[in-house]
């Protein structure tokens, strides 16, 4: 008996394949900009929830610096910042999601590194937040420097550069520690908060964001040492230079706008300004937008809907937010920071 | 050996005094004496258990009910220092978050669609599990075809927008398929007409399915990244059962097939899947599935663990069904053959209806296991009930000492009610089936 | 199927199309199956190769020799971020899985048998409590139970500075359980030797006692003698050595350091939570297996042994359990396998088992999903295949004993 089962099995396999393909969505091999225009929305890989950078509320509305960056891209393309679908990605899934075309851009506090560019086939067009890894401890431990952490147990997230930097730092300083690694940032922080570890380590921005979630935020301090360079940048796939340019100049437009004093509120009046730099930025002079496949008022759209870099920063993570992170390295170059907008010219 | 034993040793020489009659053979006191204090050992045991219960039960009752907080809108209600009394379970937290626990981030205005899914599911389950329900054959069609299609449309919004080119291609392939069926029938000198009809029916069912999900029903698209909570938990379990039953039956038949390659294939699949933990299957589905598809295809994040669970459950279901097939008396097979039925007819009309009936308890037990295992999708980042609780538990608005306990107690209650209910059902069926056997 | 056709062919000999030959049909269908499956595999493989090349992910098992660069909290072998490679990380994870499984199996067996027997106790109270235990634990997901043990039970333990002092150098705090670490002197070999002698002596004595009982009916205090030989002998050896002045074992006591207790042995809370969760959960299933096994022994056996004058304990130990074992062992083994597989849930509470270390950190650091998944699944598959093989051998042996 059983001659027919294999026949059926073949049919089932085909049927199963069909069902699977019901769920599958074809991401295109064509130019990303065209496929985004065709879909009518941008898919943006975002954090699963990091206050100030990318976090959904209970209704699924996303807010944060990285989220607004995606909204800025959508505004530049569609003149509508809501045409974005956010796909929350865990640290370990983020790059495969980008590589496989599931997301068009990854704006999820990811560190730009050489190996990620060269080995994973990614591009990090512009750094939108200069960060570094730091430590948070309880105030009552009386620790004031990371150098005093010899013998501490430290909570970290597994599979991140954080975990590797941590090992390097303690080895370089000839200190001992006990590592407790968890799969997600939620578990990691909750373990620290409940007292499993003496210190919690991640990017300094993340420390400020997570501290808000502590049961008593004021009991914790961030130690001054920054043990690594973490230039956080949006990422795109290698090879589509037009798309890379759009992402890069979305950030540059926001920087230039801040530098030139163009804000969400005054962008319409600024169109009539005499300053040639402002004219080029806002598209009243030259055809810079069309050159990357957008309209010439692309920057106006970004600023009108999202605002300039400074506004976005203040609103999400700066003094206007609960995180209260200082501009520091992320101030404009004119104010002693590292954010330097390439001129639109 | 017996030679070595001196039998006389065991013979009592003197008469034993008759024991006094039991003074109380009935009534509660006798029951207590009989069941709780029959001898020093049992008395100690009873007292020990009583003490244990005394230690365990009152704090639990205190925590769950007496000291519990039922109303409140943020953490102040559930902190002893602000509430002014010892605080047990913070049910206000569950009540506040209940929508999130049930629907995840599913948009508020569209949540009636999720309710619709729950109702459709309840109808299907009741139809199949209630042994005396009318037309259970239609119930099967409903549960394994109509219900999944409707749920898909309801939950995602349908409107796949396949496009005219797809339908042209579908029609061409379909006609080719019917033609091949007819040709095969001609070659086998079988009835061409019935072959063509069967082909057309298969084609029509697939076409209808695709058509239904293709139509724009006017529902907004809701991306799966917004789904969560009990919705996802039930969805994973449902997909598991809907796929694993038919697939498991096929695998079980394959394992008992006399064709060596089919048998080998089935055995390898079943033993492989049963030999590894579900979590590795889920991680595999999550990381490797995208690698195996062509570069321009991606699989939805929620669909990946669903596929993993479907495979996993199929292997376990196959073993249950195989048990049923093996329990069928040989006479049933021989009787079917002597009627001139071919293999599919024999299986569909004679063997499987009986075999599946025997293994209903086994199927339900497998399903209980599957239902509990759905919690593992939380580990690969899917927002099921446990993950939504984990996410809410760290909400600073509700940061209070008993929040974690409350969340877990809620989840435990949910799973317990479902699993325990199903196991009661399975026991009931088992008893009924056993009664049927005692003729 | 064949039955029908044989009758037909007997009635009207060979004049029949080869298309109706069940053998040929069989070949055809199997060929089709092989074709479809190989095609799917081929597609998957080519896609994978293409995708990997595009993503610039290396392939092959060479990555096992790359430096790990990360640390692990519980390591049974020497492991350091700088000096060890991914291959050693794999071994660490595997050992951690095996350790927690082995200890879990040990305790779950005891607890499971106790509860299984309790479910059949003549004491109503014991019976009901055992039933509630089984129903409660079987019907709640293990993941939830692990989170409960880890976060709700072990989480609120005090900070190291306020450690609970349990005496004799034992401390309990949120970093785990601390205990004195034994340091062995050069003549410590005497103690394991004494233990070995004790075990051998026990075996010899048990054989002798059994032979005596079979021939004369006389019983000896086997349990006491076993205890004396296995536990007493090493203790005596130790004491003698200590009296002589050559103390074989000294203890390093945990002391309070800046952050945590220093020195001594530390058992991680993750380990404890996983162990307790696995043990209590699996014990509920083992209890059901044991109960079914005991119920499978016919009541006549119990009555017969009672009428022979055996006490209830003896009846259980000498008559019921040996017969029940035949029914119990196969499902018991599959529970052991389940426990081992379930230990992979460690990933949810941060215990560095095989899945957490290898499928978590190593997979993320290298991106070599296929190799890592294949190795990990291979390990679990090997464990379960070897166990089934041993089970089959055991079953065959038991089946011969059956009369």
TrEMBL record, chain B:
Organism per entry: Microvirga aerophila
Sequence intervals crossing the membrane: 43-66, 112-131, 138-155, 167-188, 195-213, 225-253, 265-285, 305-325, 346-368, 405-423
Transmembrane helix among keywords: yes
Annotated SUPFAM superfamilies: MetI-like (SSF161098)
Main location: membrane
Keyword Transmembrane attributed: yes
CDD domains: TM_PBP2 (cd06261)
Keywords per UniProt: Cell membrane, Membrane, Transmembrane, Transmembrane helix, Transport
GO cellular component terms listed in the entry, alphabetical order: ATP-binding cassette (ABC) transporter complex
Gene Ontology MF terms in the entry: transmembrane transporter activity
Family: Belongs to the binding-protein-dependent transport system permease family. HisMQ subfamily.
Domain ABC transmembrane type-1: from-to ranges: 230-418
Database matches in Pfam families: BPD_transp_1
GO biological process: amino acid transport
Subcellular location per the Swiss-Prot or TrEMBL entry: Cell inner membrane; Cell membrane
NCBIfam families: HEQRo_perm_3TM (TIGR01726)
Protein name per its UniProtKB record: ABC transporter
Record's bilayer topology term: Multi-pass membrane protein
From TrEMBL, chain C:
Entry-linked CDD domains: TM_PBP2
Keyword Iron tagged: no
InterPro entries (UniProt xref): AA_ABC_transptr_permease_3TM, ArtM/GltK/GlnP/TcyL/YhdX-like, MetI-like, MetI-like_sf
One Gene Ontology MF term: transmembrane transporter activity
Principal subcellular localization: membrane
Protein origin, superkingdom: Bacteria
Regions crossing the membrane: 27-45, 89-118, 130-152, 188-208, 220-246, 266-290, 345-363, 369-394
Location relative to the cell: Cell inner membrane; Cell membrane
Membrane topology: Multi-pass membrane protein
GO BP: amino acid transport
ABC transmembrane type-1 domain location: 94-391
Entry annotated with the keyword Ribonucleoprotein: no
PROSITE patterns: ABC_TM1
Cellular component GO terms, alphabetical: ATP-binding cassette (ABC) transporter complex
Key words of the record: Amino-acid transport, Cell membrane, Membrane, Transmembrane, Transmembrane helix, Transport
Family indicated by similarity: Belongs to the binding-protein-dependent transport system permease family. HisMQ subfamily.
Official protein name in the record: Amino acid ABC transporter permease
Organism in which the protein naturally occurs: Microvirga aerophila
Lineage of producing organism: Bacteria, Pseudomonadati, Pseudomonadota, Alphaproteobacteria, Hyphomicrobiales
Gene name linked to the record: aapQ
């Amino acid at each position: 008996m059983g001659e027919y089962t294999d026949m059926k099995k073949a049919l089932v396999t085909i049927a199963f394949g069909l069902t699977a393909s019901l769920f599958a969505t074809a991401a295109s091999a064509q130019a990303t900009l065209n496929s985004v225009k065709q879909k009518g929305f941008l898919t943006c890989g975002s954090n699963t929830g990091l206050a100030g950078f990318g976090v959904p509320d209970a209704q699924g509305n996303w807010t944060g610096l990285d989220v607004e960056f995606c909204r800025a891209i959508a505004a530049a393309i569609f003149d509508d910042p809501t045409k974005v679908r956010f796909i929350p990605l865990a640290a370990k899934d983020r790059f495969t999601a980008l590589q496989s075309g599931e997301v068009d851009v990854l704006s999820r506090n990811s560190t730009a590194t050489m190996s990620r560019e060269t080995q994973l086939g990614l591009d990090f067009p512009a750094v939108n937040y200069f960060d570094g890894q730091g430590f948070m401890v309880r105030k009552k431990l009386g620790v004031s420097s990371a150098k005093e952490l010899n013998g501490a147990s430290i909570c970290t997230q597994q599979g991140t550069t954080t975990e590797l930097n941590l090992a390097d730092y303690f080895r370089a300083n000839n200190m001992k520690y006990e590592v407790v690694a968890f799969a997600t940032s939620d578990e990691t922080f909750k373990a620290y908060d409940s007292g499993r570890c003496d210190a919690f380590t991640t990017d300094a921005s993340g420390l400020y964001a997570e501290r808000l979630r502590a049961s008593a935020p004021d009991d914790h301090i961030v130690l001054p040492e920054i043990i690594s360079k973490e230039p956080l940048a949006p990422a795109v796939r290698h090879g589509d230079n037009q798309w890379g340019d759009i992402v890069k100049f979305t950030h540059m437009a926001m920087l230039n706008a801040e530098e030139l004093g163009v804000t969400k509120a005054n962008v319409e009046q600024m169109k009539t300004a005499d300053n040639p730099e402002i004219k080029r930025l806002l598209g009243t002079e030259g055809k810079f937008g069309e050159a990357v496949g957008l309209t010439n008022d692309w920057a106006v759209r970004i600023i009108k809907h999202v605002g300039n870099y400074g506004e976005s920063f203040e609103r999400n993570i700066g003094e206007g937010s609960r995180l209260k992170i200082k501009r520091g390295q992320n101030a404009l170059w004119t104010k002693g920071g590292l954010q330097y907008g390439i001129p639109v010219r | 050996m017996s030679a070595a034993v001196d039998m006389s040793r065991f013979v009592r020489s003197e008469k034993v005094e008759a024991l006094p009659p039991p003074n109380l053979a009935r009534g509660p006191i006798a029951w207590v004496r009989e069941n709780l204090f029959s001898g020093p050992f049992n008395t100690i045991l009873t007292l020990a258990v009583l003490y244990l219960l005394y230690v365990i039960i009152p704090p639990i009752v205190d925590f769950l009910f007496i000291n519990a907080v039922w109303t409140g809108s943020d953490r102040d209600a559930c902190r002893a220092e602000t509430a002014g009394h010892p605080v047990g379970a913070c049910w206000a937290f569950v009540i506040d978050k209940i929508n999130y626990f049930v629907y995840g981030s599913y948009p508020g205005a569209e949540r009636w669609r999720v309710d619709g899914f729950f109702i459709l599911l309840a109808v299907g389950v009741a139809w199949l599990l209630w042994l005396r329900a009318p037309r259970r054959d239609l119930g099967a069609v409903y549960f394994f075809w109509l219900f999944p299609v409707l749920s898909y449309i309801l939950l995602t919004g349908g409107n796949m927008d396949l496009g005219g080119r797809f339908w042209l291609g579908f029609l061409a392939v379909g006609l080719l398929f019917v033609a091949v069926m007819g040709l095969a029938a001609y070659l086998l000198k079988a009835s061409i007409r019935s072959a063509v009809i069967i082909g057309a029916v298969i084609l029509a069912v697939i076409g209808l399915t695709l058509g239904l999900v293709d139509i724009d029903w006017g529902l907004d698209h809701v991306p799966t990244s917004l789904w969560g909570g009990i919705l996802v938990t039930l969805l994973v379990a449902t997909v598991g059962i809907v796929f694993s039953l038919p697939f498991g039956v096929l695998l079980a038949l394959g394992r008992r097939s006399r064709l060596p390659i089919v048998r080998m294939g089935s055995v390898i699949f079943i033993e492989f899947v049963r030999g590894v933990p579900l979590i590795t299957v889920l991680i595999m589905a999550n990381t490797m599935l995208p690698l195996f598809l062509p570069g321009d295809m991606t699989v939805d994040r929620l669909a990946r663990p669903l596929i993993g669970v479907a495979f996993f459950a199929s292997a376990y279901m196959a073993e249950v069904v195989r048990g049923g097939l093996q329990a069928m008396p040989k006479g049933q097979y021989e009787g079917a053959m002597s009627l001139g039925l071919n293999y599919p007819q024999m299986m569909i009309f004679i063997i499987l209806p009986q075999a599946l009936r025997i293994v209903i308890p086994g199927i339900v037990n497998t399903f209980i296991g599957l239902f509990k295992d759905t919690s593992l999708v939380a580990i690969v980042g899917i927002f099921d009930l446990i993950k939504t609780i984990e996410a809410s538990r760290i909400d600073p608005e509700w940061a209070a000492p008993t929040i974690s306990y409350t969340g877990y107690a809620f989840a435990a209650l949910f799973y317990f009610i479902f699993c325990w209910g199903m196991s009661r059902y399975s026991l009931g069926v088992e008893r009924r089936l056993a009664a049927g056997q005692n003729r | 199927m064949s039955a029908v056709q044989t009758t037909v062919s007997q009635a009207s000999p060979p004049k029949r199309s080869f298309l109706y030959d069940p053998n040929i049909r069989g070949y055809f269908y199997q060929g089709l199956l092989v074709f479809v499956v190989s095609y799917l595999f081929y597609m998957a493989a080519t896609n994978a190769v293409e995708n990997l090349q595009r993503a610039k992910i290396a392939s092959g098992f060479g990555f096992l020799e790359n430096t790990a660069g990360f640390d692990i909290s519980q390591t049974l072998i020497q492991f350091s971020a700088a000096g060890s490679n991914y291959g050693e990380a794999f071994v660490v994870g595997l050992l951690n899985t095996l350790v927690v499984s082995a200890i879990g199996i040990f305790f779950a067996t005891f607890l499971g048998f106790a509860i299984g027997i309790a479910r059949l106790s003549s004491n109503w109270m014991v019976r009901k409590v055992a039933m509630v235990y089984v129903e409660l634990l079987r019907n709640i997901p293990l993941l939830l139970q692990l989170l409960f043990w880890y976060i709700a039970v072990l989480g609120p333990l005090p900070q190291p500075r306020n450690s609970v002092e349990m005496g004799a150098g034992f401390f309990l705090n949120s970093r785990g359980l601390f205990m004195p670490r034994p340091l062995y002197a050069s003549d410590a070999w005497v103690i394991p030797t004494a233990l070995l002698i004790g075990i051998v002596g026990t075996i010899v004595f048990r054989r002798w006692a059994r032979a005596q009982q079979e021939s004369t009916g006389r019983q000896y205090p086997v349990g006491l003698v076993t205890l004396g030989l296995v536990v007493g002998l090493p203790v005596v050896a130790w004491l003698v050595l200590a009296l002589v002045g050559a103390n074989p074992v000294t203890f390093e006591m945990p002391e309070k350091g800046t952050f945590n207790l220093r020195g001594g042995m530390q058992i991680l809370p993750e380990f404890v939570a996983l162990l307790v969760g696995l043990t209590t959960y699996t014990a509920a299933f083992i209890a059901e297996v044991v109960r079914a096994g005991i119920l499978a022994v016919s009541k006549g056996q119990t009555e017969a042994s009672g009428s022979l004058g055996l006490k209830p304990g003896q009846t259980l130990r000498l008559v019921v359990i040996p017969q029940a074992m035949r029914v119990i062992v196969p499902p018991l083994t599959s529970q052991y396998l389940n426990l081992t597989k379930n230990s992979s849930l460690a990933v949810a509470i941060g215990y560095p088992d095989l899945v957490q270390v290898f499928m978590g950190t190593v997979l993320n650091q290298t991106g070599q999903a296929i190799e890592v998944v294949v190795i990990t699944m291979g390990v679990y598959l090997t464990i379960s295949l070897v166990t089934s093989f041993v089970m089959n051998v055991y079953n065959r042996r038991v089946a011969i004993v059956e009369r």
